[in-house]
Amino acid sequence: MELLQILERYAPFNEQEVRDRAVLMGLLRTGQNLWTRENEAAHLTASAWVVNGDRERVLMAHHNIYDSWSWLGGHADGERDLLAVAMREVREESGLARVAPVSEALFSLEILTVDGHEKRGRYVPSHLHLNLTYLLEADEHELLAVKPDENSAVAWFGREEAVEASSEPWFRARVYSKLNAKLARL
């Protein structure tokens, strides 16, 4: 299914999702390439809210660039299956071998601002991440491993502890708390 169709069928959770979905759909309709980082103003990313089997714990990574505990995810880089992107990124960033979708349906969406920063010795200008989030499940007892070029630690947190672990106020209030609220409704 095309991304525009997925977004048309998606039922937004709150006003943030209503408004971000409208902007994202508008950008997709322009025909510009949003699938790669060649679009330095805005591009598609996929993130994961990774939970354990009883959905009481969340996997977070301590992100090097943002110096904060955060969800896992990354750039589409041309891949059109954003669920596959989220799953790939979780495996790469956590060392987990087994991760599975709780559902293949889109769990959340957000437009995220990214401040300019250095990455691998090169300046990356400020831009937007047009982010789709998927709910994934993994075994909390499986061995974790850091990805040194992206994170310095990977750990499981209680749902509320995961929110509090982040040092980014906007993410705590607008993203992670929302994901937990949606999770509580399942």
Automatic annotation (TrEMBL):
Domain Nudix hydrolase residue range list: 41-182
The keyword Secreted is assigned to this record: no
Keyword annotations of the record: Hydrolase
Entry coiled-coil feature ranges: none
Signal peptide positions on this chain: none
InterPro entries reported in the protein's UniProt record: NUDIX_hydrolase-like_dom_sf, NUDIX_hydrolase_dom
PROSITE patterns to which the protein is assigned, alphabetical: NUDIX
Assigned EC number: 3.3.1.1
Pfam families according to UniProt: NUDIX
GO MF: hydrolase activity
Protein family per UniProt: Belongs to the Nudix hydrolase family.
Protein name listed in UniProt: Adenosylhomocysteinase
